[in-house]
Amino acid sequence: MLIEIRGVQFVNKGAELMLHACLEQIQQHWPQAQVALAPNKNSPYQARALLGALQKLPLRFKGYDFNALSYWLPKRFRSFLRHWLGVVFEVDIDWVLDASGFAYGDQWGGRNIKVLTDEILRLQRHHKGYVLLPQAFGPFTGQSEQLQLQTALPAAWLVCPRDDASFQHLHPLLGGSANLQQFADFTNLVKPQLPEEQPEKPLCLIIPNAAMLSKKNLNLQWQANYLRVLELAVNTAFSQQLEPVLLNHEGIADAAICQLIASKYQPPLRVINEPDPRQVKGWITVSKLVVCSRFHGCVSALSSGVPCLGTSWSHKYEALFSEYQQAGCLLQPDVDAAQLEALFLLAIALANTEQAQAAINYYQTQSKQLWQQVVVAVANGLKASSEQVK
After folding, report:
1. Which of 100, 302, 331, 387 is 20 to 30 A from 337 in CA distance terms?
2. CA atoms lying within 13 Å on the CB side of residue 265
3. 24 with 66, same domain?
4. Number of domains, the chain
5. Nearest residue to 105 via CA among 135, 74, 77, 138
């Protein structure tokens, strides 16, 4: 069996954490399977090769999709490339595990939806499958995108919206289809790797997100206030006897914000650039409090019982904090010093409630149920495909 993991990368630590979550579950449920990863600008060859993944060669050029041609490649030629070079094509894939996180909706334009729907239908024609793991979806206001999704999504083996809003965006397109099942984020099953050096003082970990300043953030107040709020978080940490430390959760843009904030203080604040997402989660779990603008940074904190204050540029943040019974811990762009002082104390108090612990346990159980459902969907899909071939 050859499984392609889609939508992951090595720069965004949340996307890489989802990759590790997928690899752990594949090893548990399909131990004989091989994994394929396709290249992208944030997924270089060396990083993919270190995981032992086969190299999926995507036949796309300047927006044109030629993957259908892979089905005409001679089997002997493909076997040679797979054995000697580790290169595979779409024709070699048995099913796709899509862990994109948030890639399909108006904020990303129509191209992603076109690629997704074309591939789902093409795989179906060739008796292969597609599983969309829990992720944020929508909204879908374009008629063309709605029609494409209405046509293709029923052919997927499983479609998992991650929150109520995403479910509502998909439900009109799928109706009562049994393959539409809501589950929360699944990275809560990944164990953190604790840092070798234990912090001397209680940490306030601050995790910025360049998307807060981008056009994707429809709340324009954040563009004027985001850097001010981050500085305010640093000052509040100092006033509450916490050591403020910045953590880069994704690439160059976030690193620039980290350095900008760090350089405003003397001595400059510490900036953590940790390449392994499991160790990033480790830093989060040893912190006293986290102020976070990255979705999976928030997940790692909330699912580990670490007090967390978040910011939002998408409905997925409101959904996440509500799930963990901490809706009041999302910051507003006009927050002032006194309010933030109070919110620090609120986050610490809420993280230690019975309701918060119950939510942690509930979503741990739900993530295990998710993978049980994936196993069933894959087994049913492979059985149906085998019968169609006969």
Report:
1. 302
2. 20
3. yes
4. 2
5. 138
Give dist(CA 351, CA 357) in Å, integer: 8
* Shared domain check, 385 and 265: no
Q: Is the pLDDT of residue 388 over 80?
A: no
The arrangement of strands across the sheet holding 308-310 comes to: 270-272, 243-247, 203-207, 289-292, 308-310
**Cα gap 185→267, rounded to integer Å:** 38
DSSP letter (8 states) at residue 40: B
- The structure's pTM equals 0.93
Q: Which of 86, 119, 124, 87 is nearest to 100 (CA)?
A: 119
Beta strands in the chain (DSSP E): 2-6, 34-37, 54-56, 60-61, 64-65, 87-88, 95-98, 102-104, 129-137, 158-161, 203-207, 243-247, 270-272, 289-292, 308-310
Closest CA to 245 of 282, 281, 298, 202: 202
The C-alpha atoms of residue 188 and residue 298 are separated, in whole angstroms, by: 11
Name the residue range of residue 75's domain. Answer: 2-189+364-389
Q: How far apart are CA 305 and CA 287, in angstroms?
A: 10
Choose among 9, 55, 17: nearest CA to 34. 55
> Which residue, 311, 320, 303, is CA-closest to 340?
311
- Which amino acid appears at position 1 of this protein? M
Q: Does 194 fall in a domain?
A: no
319 has pLDDT over 70: yes
Residues shown for the chain: 390
